[in-house]
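Protein ANTAGONIST OF LIKE HETEROCHROMATIN PROTEIN 1-like
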Amino acid sequence: MTPAQYDHLCHLVRPFLTKRSLRKPISVNERVAATLLFLAHGDSARSKSWDFRIGKSTIYKIIYETCDAIWQALHARYLPKPSQETWEKVIDEFWDKWNFPNCIGALDGKHITIQAPPNSNSLNYNYKGFFSFILMAICDANYKFIWIDVGDYGPNSDGGVWANSNLGQSLESNTGDIPLPKLLPGTTTLLPCAL
């Protein structure tokens, strides 16, 4: 990340992270730096606590708040809710690139390995034998994310994560802007869109 990109990110998240306090608050730049280093290197929060001379509980809170601020500042621009136009484009790309008709995306879940959170017991312990949270995503024909849901507990099944996700619920209730069934190419058979 270049210094200009770092400054731009700090500028975007500043409204979400600016604190008012009687004591001197930890600056937005320091919050972003600690979080980016934590995410990039996979160190423990404890090591970032030592690196930045910030209390352990404070660094946990900073990382959580900063990740949330980054999401709030960037998701509408880089990962907006898919519109009907987006789905139509994905359908065309899957047909052109993979000869897969009426496909609105490739859906899968991935376990992201984590260190066991304190006092979590088996909350994040999955069937594969490690602690994790789940990233569920839909990609277009070019492997680009068009929707994600992150943070469900490791032992939950893909079906359970999908059923509880905002997109899964909107598709179940027919409020997800999914295109109507289309003719299967070369036939007169109408088929619904598929994941």
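thats it. The mean pLDDT is 87. The two ends are 34 Å apart (CA to CA). bye
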